[in-house]
Write a structure and sequence with these properties.
The chain has two domains: about 80 residues; about 240 residues, Rossmann fold (3-Layer(aba) Sandwich), CATH 3.40.50.1460. The protein contains eleven helices and twelve strands. The protein is an alpha/beta fold.
């Protein structure tokens, strides 16, 4: 009963976000197209994604790199050509900037293939392989990385790129789903106007975006009366096994739920800043840790006795309520 009352109380509080905003960087690469229709489609998805990241998700413009097949289509938006050389250069430049507390979002949009041994992201000129991408990502150390591949044959990346601290999202469940995909369209839609913001906290987590896009893909094939040729996966606990529906039951989705865009929306909107009140900053940081502890406990529920789970959850909820009350009192 006490847990139920605490949940009701917490639902009445303002949305909680991390106070200290980790700097987010993004690399968006739009593949070689092969024909005008694909060229227009891939450009639309990648350019819209960049604009959404910049304008709605508040990622600084100088933290976003867009590589595309034809940068002349909109030179003020694109940073270079989608070649292996340019992609390597962009990753090396980001490596020199990104710190352990930062986030790196990588979006591979367009065509991908599988040659019987490795995944290949199709670029202008030589392609880049899954193992080559892994070599680049491994150089970023403990920085949290989100890699989203909207391409055919991308499912194998959940195995190739899996590592603690990474979120891997793919449009297909394996390297053998090689047909054209539509996952990219709905991924952009998920972030656009925060369409996937199911908890209404003014942010879209990677988990929310994934679930929204995956559901839209499923519905699209059903509405068209077509057999689905793509089945999206998410992997974020380092076990190299992607799942279609992340949950505490399968252990996937916890990290993806923690990474959201934009970060610290409610705090920034309120006008509270780290420099104005260090005590308030500490309270927000404490609330963030409690929220993360609650999410982690949900993922441990299956391994705990019911009484122990309830005891720990009640304690965390009480601490969260008390901390939120202190924040409210401090802001008056």
């Amino acid at each position: 009963m006490r847990i139920g009352l605490l949940v009701i109380f917490l639902c009445l509080l303002p949305p909680a976000n991390a106070f200290a905003q980790a700097s987010i960087y993004a690399l968006v690469v739009s593949s070689a197209s092969g024909n005008p229709d694909f060229k227009d489609k891939f450009w639309s998805w990648s350019s819209q994604l960049v604009q959404v990241l910049r304008d709605e998700m508040k990622v600084p413009s100088d933290h976003i790199v867009l590589l595309t097949e034809d940068p002349t289509m909109q030179p003020q938006l694109a940073n270079g050509k989608a070649t292996k050389v340019e992609m390597t250069r962009a990753l090396e430049s980001l490596e020199s900037k990104i710190k352990p507390e930062n986030r790196l979002l990588i979006f591979l949009i367009g065509h991908g293939s599988f040659d019987g041994r490795d995944y290949k992201f199709n670029l202008v000129g030589p392609d880049i392989t899954g193992p080559e991408i892994k070599t680049h990502l491994d150089r970023f150390g403990s920085a949290r990385i989100v890699l989203v591949s909207t391409t055919p044959c991308s499912g194998v990346l959940t195995k190739t790129l899996s590592q603690k601290g990474r979120v891997i999202v793919t449009a297909t469940k394996s390297e053998f789903e090689g047909n054209e995909t539509i996952f990219g369209e709905f991924l952009v839609e998920a972030f656009k106007n925060k369409a996937a913001d199911t908890d209404k906290n003014s942010s879209v987590s990677i988990l929310e975006a994934y679930l929204y896009a995956a559901q839209k893909v499923d519905s699209w094939y059903k509405e068209k009366g077509r057999l689905a040729t793509e089945h999206p996966l998410l992997e974020d606990n380092g076990d190299a096994v992607g799942v279609a529906r992340p949950s505490p039951a399968n252990g996937e989705g916890l990290l993806a739920a923690r990474i959201s865009l934009p970060e610290a929306t409610a705090v920034l909107a309120s006008g509270a800043t780290a420099s104005s009140d260090p005590e308030l900053q500490a309270l927000y940081a404490a609330r963030q840790k409690l929220e993360e502890a609650i999410q982690e406990l949900k993922y441990k529920k299956a391994s705990l006795a019911e009484a122990e789970y309830n005891r720990q959850m009640e304690s965390l909820l009480i601490q969260l309520a008390q901390t939120s009350q202190k924040i409210s009192a401090k802001k008056k």
